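[agent] plan:
  1. take the single chain provided in the ticket
  2. run structure prediction with default settings
  3. attach structure tokens to the ticket
  4. add a short note for the reviewer (M.T.)
[agent] executing step 1
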Amino acid sequence: QVQLVESGGGLVQAGGSLRLSCAASGRTFSSDAMGWFRQAPGKERSFVAAISWGGSITNYADSVKGRFTISRENAKGSVYLQMNSLKPEDTAVYYCAAGRTFSDWNFWGRGTQVTVSS
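[agent] step 2 finished; step 3 output follows
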């Protein structure tokens, strides 16, 4: 089992920045791919970004490329999402996920709310 706890959400004006953190505990964290997903009101959960266990491979949704950066610190059991140039359409609950591959997400956090005002 892996437990994931997100933090760092909040209210920010358009054009601003936020840094989300996800603290992982439980079984070996460094062997998992880690990802961020988001769910806006009335919409399905969607992929935002992912990073391989070693950090050498990253993947981003087209909508956030060039604005968001995913990173991880295996020694701290943490993964981060730096979000710059935020837009109102980035408003959502953001979830951290862990899995064996980029298409196999087994564990989820409870989410943190990000609200971007125009």
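[agent] step 4 note for reviewer: The mean pLDDT is 94.
[agent] ticket updated
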